[in-house]
Design goal:
Elements: E1 2-4, H1 6-15, E2 19-22, H2 26-31, E3 37-39, H3 42-48, E4 57-61, H4 66-77, E5 81-85, H5 88-95
Parallel strand pairs: 1-5, 2-3, 2-4, 4-5
């Protein structure tokens, strides 16, 4: 499975619009999330996948990497183009601290 670092993700986001899915629970997402991320909790990924376009690429993120890997594997197994964001929002917060 393809992966991307938060640094490379940030560089990509500066160049183009991307489909970033945050698979954390709503409360986690509401407290902090990466700009442009859409919240689809892991528990809902199995149901919401049908609304995703198989022609697009989806970047999957969670807090540290475990849930995003599960979601990315599930979606990839169903024919979706996915990239797992390594380190999740923890790595994002360390690299790009909130002011």
């Amino acid at each position: 499975m393809e992966t991307i670092s938060v640094k490379s993700l940030n560089e990509l986001m500066a160049k183009e619009a991307i489909n970033l899915i945050d698979v954390r629970e709503k409360e986690e997402y509401d407290s902090f999330h990466i700009p442009c991320a859409k919240n689809i909790p892991l528990s809902d990924v199995y149901h919401d996948k049908m609304s995703l376009d198989k022609e697009d690429t989806y970047y999957i993120v969670c807090k540290g990497g475990t849930r995003s890997r599960k979601a990315a594997e599930f979606l990839a197994d169903h024919g979706y183009n996915v990239v797992d964001v390594m380190g999740g929002t923890l790595a994002w917060g360390e690299m790009f601290p909130r002011s």
